């Protein structure tokens, strides 16, 4: 499988790995078919994502897309983070092999799951803002 240099770089030297002890939002998503699991931690201050970290169990593309997604939302407003798409993550990585596109979808979902958790902790219904985030166990059709 051919990966771009950017994918390899983010796989070998992933950015923002780890967890945030007192995270304001934590999202975990997974794909039952391929076994990739992503956990995303967000620190949010005054509507800005001041820090984000991730832990991913999965293939190189899953690690690379998680790493790139955290880089793309760090320092951004929540509304900017909500605009993050799997296509934008793939583009930033100079593309992914077709069989690995689901990894970028997981990265987008992990961000949204963490924001969903953030809103729930604030006592705000996240669905009108974030949309529906697939449950961890569900397989996509």
What would a concise description of this structure say?
With 141 residues, the chain is of the alpha+beta class. The protein contains six helices and three strands.
Describe this structure in words.
- The protein is α+β, with helices and mostly antiparallel strands.
- It has a single domain, classed as Sufe protein. Chain: A.
- It is built from six helices and three strands.
- The chain has a three-stranded antiparallel sheet with strand order 1-2-3.
- Strand 2 and strand 3 form a beta hairpin.
- It is globular and about 45 Å long.
Q: Which stretches of 5+ consecutive residues score pLDDT under 50?
A: none
Give the name of the CATH architecture.
Alpha-Beta Complex
Compute the number of strand runs. Answer: 3
* Terminal residue distance: 24 Å
Q: Nearest-angstrom radius of gyration?
A: 14 Å
Summing up helix and strand content along with how strands pair, one would put the structural category as alpha+beta
User: Mean pLDDT across all residues, rounded?
Assistant: 93
Question: Count of DSSP helices?
Answer: 6
Sketch the major β-sheet.
Answer: 3 strands, antiparallel
Kindly provide the name of the CATH class.
Alpha Beta
Main-sheet strand order equals 1-2-3
**CATH topology annotation:** Sufe protein. Chain: A
């Amino acid at each position: 499988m051919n990966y771009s240099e950017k994918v390899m770089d983010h796989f070998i030297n992933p950015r923002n790995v780890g967890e945030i002890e007192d995270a304001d939002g934590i999202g975990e998503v997974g794909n039952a078919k391929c076994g990739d699991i992503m956990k995303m931690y967000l620190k949010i201050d005054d509507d800005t994502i001041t820090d984000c970290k991730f832990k991913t169990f999965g293939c190189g593309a899953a690690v690379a897309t998680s790493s790139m997604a955290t880089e793309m939302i760090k320092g951004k407003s929540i509304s900017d983070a909500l605009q993050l798409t799997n296509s934008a993550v793939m583009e930033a990585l100079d593309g992914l092999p077709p069989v690995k596109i689901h990894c970028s979808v997981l990265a987008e979902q992990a961000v949204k799951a963490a924001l969903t958790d953030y809103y729930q902790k604030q006592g705000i219904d996240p669905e009108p803002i974030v949309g529906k985030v697939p449950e961890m166990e569900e397989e996509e059709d």
